Amino acid sequence: MNSTLLYAAARLMFFLSLLGMLPNNMKVQNFITTHLEVNTGKLENPVRVAVISDLHLHEYGPDNADLVQAIREEQPDIIAIIGDMVIKRNPEYASVITLCRQLTEIAPVYYVYGNHEYENITKLSSKIGEDLRAIGVQVLDSEWRTITVNGNSIDIAGIPRSPGRYNWTDQMMMASYLQSPNFRLLLVHNPGFYDPRITTNPDKALVGKKIDVAICGHRHGGQIGIPFVGGLYHPDTGLFPNLTFGDNLIGETHVIVSRGLSDHNGLPRLNDPYELLILTLH
Questions:
Q1: Which of 12, 50, 86, 270 has a beta carbon 3.0–4.6 Å from 76's, enabling a disulfide?
Q2: pTM over 0.85, yes/no
Q3: Residues 64/65/71/75 CA torsion (nearest 10 deg)
Q4: SS3 37
C-alpha cells in the first residue's frame, strides 16, 4: 500500500471513530503509563525519569490535572520534556506553561524543543523559552550541564533541531559534551539522528558517539501498532518506520523513544496508546 492509500485509509478510520463505529479497544481515550528499566551499569544509584513528549497542546483534565497527578504518583527524580508540546503555526502555549509550573513543584524539569517549538520560535518569534525559564524550567537549547541526582553525576544535554537543521552550534556543543567522563543523558526530540534512513551524513549522526542514554519522541509510536512488526507509518520515513517506541540499543547507546501523549495530524492511533513514560536508569 503506498502512502497516499495509507493516508486515505487512516482518514476513513478516523471518521469512523468519530461516529463511534470502531470497537472501544481500537480508540485512544486516555494515556497509559509505561515503565522501562534501562541497565547501563554506569550509575551507582537508580535514577527515575518521567518523560513527556508530543503533547501538542492537549490537556488531560483541567490544567492537565490528570497528567500531573500521574507524574506525582511516580515520584520521579527528574522530569524530561522531549518537545512538541505545542503546535506549529499556532502561537498559543499558555497550557504548556501552566503544566510546567506544576511539574517544577514535583521534580527538576528539563526541556528540549521539538520541531514544532523550533518552527514557532524561528517563524513566529515565540517567547516560550523565556517563559519556561522564568518559571524554573531548565531549557536545553543546544547546551549541556552537569547535575547530581541520587549521588550520580550526570551530564544532561539537549539538541533542539532536526537532523536536517543540525548546525555548527549543535556540533560545538556535542564536541564539548563528549569530553566529560560522566554519565551522558541526551534529550533529542527527533530519533532520526539514529536512523540511517534519515541521517546519512556521519557528522550529523549520533550513532557511535559515546552517549549512554538518548531520549526521543516525534514518531507517535508509528500511528498504528502491528504486533511483532512495530509502527506502520511516519511522514519522515514512510511505511514501517523504526525507532517508534521503547528501548532500542544502537551501538552503546540506549535510544529510548516515547510514543507521545497526543497527535496533531488528524490520523487515528490504533493499537498505539498515548504514553507517559517512566524510566528507571541504572
A1: 50
A2: yes
A3: 150
A4: strand
Residues 6+ apart with CB under 8 A from 80: 49, 50, 51, 52, 110, 187, 215
The dihedrals phi and psi of 122, each to the nearest 5 degrees, come to -80, -30
State the burial class of residue 181 (Cβ atoms within 10 Å of its Cβ: 0-12, 13-18, 19+). exposed
d(CA 85, CA 22): 28
pLDDT on residue 185: 98
Contact 49, 256 (CB under 8 A): no
| Burial (CB count within 10 angstroms: exposed 0-12, middle 13-18, buried 19+), residue 117 | buried
- Write down the pLDDT at residue 28: 45
31: three-class secondary structure by DSSP: strand
Query: Three-state DSSP class for 223?
Result: coil
The residues, any chain, with a CB within 8 Å of residue 135's CB and separated by 6 or more, are 97, 100, 101, 104
Please list the residues that pair with 252 across neighbouring strands.
Answer: none
Show the cell assigned to 193.
539522528
Domains of the chain plus CATH, in order, are: 31-281 (3.60.21.10)
DSSP letters, 249-275, are EETTEEEEE---S--SSS---BS--EE
pLDDT at 7 over 80: no
Asked whether the beta carbons of 81 and 112 are under 8 A apart, the reply is yes
Instruction: Quick: pLDDT tens for 186-209.
Output: 999 999 999 888 876 767 779 989
Give the Cα separation of 150 and 45 in Å (integer): 6
Per-residue model confidence as pLDDT tens digits over 235-249 = 777 788 888 999 999
- In whole angstroms, give the CA distance from residue 135 to residue 102: 10
Can you give the C-alpha Rg of the chain in angstroms?
A: 18
